[in-house]
Amino acid sequence: MSFSISRRELIESLAMAAVPNMSSQMQVYVVVGAGVFGAWTAYHLRRTGNKVTLLDEYGPASSRASSGGESRIIRASYGKDEVYSKMALRSMTLWEEFFARTGRNLLARTGVLWLARTGNAYARESREALEKLGIKFEHLSPAELKQRYPQFQVGDNVDAIFEPNSGALMARQAVQAVVAQFVRDGGSYEHAAIRTPEGKGRLQHIETKDGRAISGDAFVFACGPWLGKVFPDVLGKRIFPTRQEVFFFGIPPGDRRFEPPQMPVWIDFSDDRGMYGFPDLESRGFKVAFDKHGPEIDPDSVNRFASPEKVAAAREYVSERFPALANCPIVDSRVCQYENTSNGDFVIDRHPAFDNVWIAGGGSGHGFKHGPAVGEYTAARVTGAATPAIEPRFSLASKGTEQNRAVY
Question: What is the pTM of this model?
Fold first, then answer.
């Protein structure tokens, strides 16, 4: 699906748009990268009344992007990492407000089911954090889990957390909707590739690969897995793009057990395989994905065909966990990527060499849901609307050069 907006639609929406908080002195901002972090950052910057240009070399939520896919989970369970539980809550509010504003709901509130071994510390910490923050959830015993979701084949040592208000975001469509609304609000989108900025101090402009200069008062680079390529000296050894394979299994004819509301989004940490998946959304099939980090890839050049090894592993898992799907065909597959930091925390910080350049990335496989809050957080610091101090966990200084994932 390509991003487009008709001239008539743009003119009509601009005439109706009411951009709040118009600033007395308009600033010029440039955001590079139209994935979920970049799209929402540009959206928030424009809503403050500033002039904003958003660039992407492949298009919003392209098939090469980490935001390019059918669906992404939104949930609040993060163990004891309350910073992400709170961001998920804020993002849920902002997603809902955005969908209400645009009249297009791209959130399937299927609920999210988190499977874990009975007594698992991470699950216990998640329950404690959810209770502390007032987030609705249920703790399902092994017997309750089997009774409510007989589609799952689980042992007597597996229980679950169920978040009824969480679910699935239709990822590619949602990002493209944010970019489209940004344009309706008066923002400018350009399909362009840029060169790595050189120098230090205050950046005056960036150069596109076709030789144009784009000036700005401040710049945000939200380039996902390309951050290491754009800033090889700073991020080349701190952003790790990894190959992540996704499969869609066809549903038996007339079988409704694998669609909402009978089937929620699910995350299975009951063994060391680290799988997750989605019910049959938009008749695409039952989605099964690997959360464990795959090998490092180049997001520009990697061929995105499923590997025979992962096909076999996905089939083995589905046959064991969802016996009714054991003989069903794989009707679609995808190869996307995570752009991991060393520990799984985001990186949202100033570039160390430039006074007016910000970096926002490192979604690390769990970032999509947080796009609205990340954009709000980044925009507030770029404009000076919030104290520029950075959450220590998001700082560039906290990112190492070896992977030791600590956020799930």
Answer: 0.93
